[in-house]
């Protein structure tokens, strides 16, 4: 039983360790970055805000309805409803109402504001697409850099293995008196230099892995690694198109132009909205209100027993008093709450027309300001097209140059491989010294490293051209 528990624990620990040390492919890195990169998330928030802006514009077509209610106590010197005299008392009053308003016409500004919101949402979506393209290229470049550093280390290790073998043969030749001891020292110095370069190469791998992990927003640098695999060159048929074909395709597909065009449409829509302020606005309104009080009410009248009559005047000539009955109000408790609300309610409704006449040239200046912004947006679109042409031309030229450099690096590597093989044969029979052998080996190692660098540089620059040609990010082949 104990052995079984121990085995289960080891298997669980092994599975956890394997999960933590997952090796990432390039496709997984790109997909993870598109979902978790902070810059992508921030751009997604802009799209979300544009959706809210669109809902705001739709809300302008909906009536505004507000309800209010007030229940207040007034303590102090207030007018009595029975005598009309100011007396110290506490009076409670309640009032409530509902108000509705609807804009019937505002110079079509609400309608154009909705159109603007839709364009703004489209512009933010284009910005998100561009951000995803940029992040994809950035991740691919960082990933290929890690891969280059790893394969560069493998080249150094392979060369160091050759040096170790040569060290043994040199030791035998020195012991036999065929080679001087200086050759042995030269080989040992070469081995020490190679070990130092291997340490630096390992450091470069860790640095490039950390840079890639930061791009992916992964904080576990220690367990982050990528799959060790060689990437072939796919998509070089894209260079069969002329640079002008790529430029025209980029103008149709790339987000940079779409963003600039959307910004110009936004500027034009702002002009239309500001011109709407020249026109009258027509609003409809409706109000329902009611009130209630806790104060006693007058329910009738009776003759004042203390003063049943009162003088209202005198007869002319006889000066005889004219008397009338003197009554006083009879108070009763307040009506029930809902009865008062029913009795005291009322409605108000109508239309309100506002005609702009003079507002200190504010509307006129705003229209002119937005017209200037349209001009600026036109220039920005023109500049975006020029920049795109320059970038595509540069990317196309770089890709062709990288391909030629890669082919030249392969030829140089093959030539140096044969030269190194020849130098090895001469060194083994004592026809050359250790210094010349080391120099041939270093040249061969440099051409191998350059061939690797040229290959991954060409792959990356080829992907840039493919993106400009309108190939979606997820369809790029590596």
From TrEMBL:
Compartment(s) where it occurs, according to its Swiss-Prot or TrEMBL record: Cell outer membrane
Keyword Membrane: yes
Keywords: Cell outer membrane, Membrane, Signal, Transmembrane, Transmembrane beta strand, Transport
Protein name per its UniProtKB record: Outer membrane protein
SUPFAM superfamilies: Outer membrane efflux proteins (OEP)
Pfam families with a match to the protein in the record: OEP (PF02321)
Top-level taxon of origin: Bacteria
Molecular-function GO terms, alphabetical: efflux transmembrane transporter activity; porin activity
Signal peptide bounds: 1-19
Homology family: Belongs to the outer membrane factor (OMF) (TC 1.B.17) family.
Source organism: Christiangramia gaetbulicola
Coiled-coil residue windows: none
InterPro entries, A to Z: OMP_efflux, TolC-like
Gene Ontology cellular-component terms listed: cell outer membrane; efflux pump complex
Phylogenetic classification of the source organism: Bacteria, Pseudomonadati, Bacteroidota, Flavobacteriia, Flavobacteriales
């Amino acid at each position: 039983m104990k052995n079984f528990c121990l085995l289960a624990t080891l298997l669980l620990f092994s599975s956890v360790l394997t999960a933590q040390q997952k090796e990432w492919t390039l496709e997984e890195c790109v997909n993870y970055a598109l979902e978790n990169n902070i810059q992508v998330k921030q751009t997604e928030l802009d799209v979300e805000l544009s959706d809210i802006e669109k809902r705001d514009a739709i809300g302008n077509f909906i009536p505004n309805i507000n309800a209010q209610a007030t229940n207040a106590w007034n303590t102090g010197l207030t007018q009595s409803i029975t005598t009309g005299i100011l007396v110290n008392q506490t009076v409670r009053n309640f009032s409530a109402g509902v108000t509705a308003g609807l804009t019937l016409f505002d110079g079509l500004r609400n309608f154009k504001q909705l159109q603007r919101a839709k364009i703004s949402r489209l512009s933010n979506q284009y910005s998100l697409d561009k951000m995803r393209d940029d992040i994809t290229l950035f991740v691919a470049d960082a990933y290929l850099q890690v891969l280059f550093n790893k394969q560069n280390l493998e080249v150094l290790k392979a060369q160091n293995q050759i040096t170790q073998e040569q060290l043994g043969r040199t030791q035998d030749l020195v012991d036999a008196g065929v080679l001087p001891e200086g050759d042995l020292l030269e080989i040992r110095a070469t081995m020490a230099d190679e070990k130092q370069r291997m340490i630096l190469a390992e450091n470069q791998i860790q640095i490039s892995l950390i840079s890639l992990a930061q791009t992916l927003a992964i904080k576990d640098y220690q367990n982050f690694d990528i799959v060790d695999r060689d990437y072939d060159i796919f998509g070089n048929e894209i260079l069969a198109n002329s640079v002008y074909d790529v430029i025209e395709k980029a103008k149709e597909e790339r987000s940079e132009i779409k963003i600039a065009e959307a910004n110009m449409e936004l500027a034009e829509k702002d002009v239309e909205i500001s011109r709407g302020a020249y026109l009258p606005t027509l609003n409809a309104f409706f109000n329902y209100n009611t009130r209630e009080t806790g104060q006693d009410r007058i329910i009738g009248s009776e003759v004042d027993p203390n003063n049943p009559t009162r003088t209202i005047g005198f007869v002319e000539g006889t000066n005889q008093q004219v008397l009338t009955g003197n009554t006083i109000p009879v108070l009763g408790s307040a009506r029930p709450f809902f009865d008062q609300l029913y009795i005291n309610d009322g409605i108000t409704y109508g239309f309100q027309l506002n005609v702009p006449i003079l507002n200190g040239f504010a509307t006129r200046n705003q229209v002119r300001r937005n017209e200037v912004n349209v001009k600026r947006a036109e220039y920005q679109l023109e500049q975006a097209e020029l920049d795109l042409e320059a970038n595509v031309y540069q990317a196309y030229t770089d890709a062709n140059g990288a391909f030629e450099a890669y082919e030249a690096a392969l030829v140089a590597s093959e030539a140096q491989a044969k030269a190194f093989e020849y130098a090895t044969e001469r060194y083994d029979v004592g026809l050359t010294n250790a210094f010349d052998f080391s120099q041939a080996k270093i040249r061969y190692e440099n051409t191998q490293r350059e061939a690797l660098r040229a290959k991954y540089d060409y792959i990356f620059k080829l992907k840039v051209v493919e993106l400009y040609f309108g190939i979606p990010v997820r369809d790029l082949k590596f």
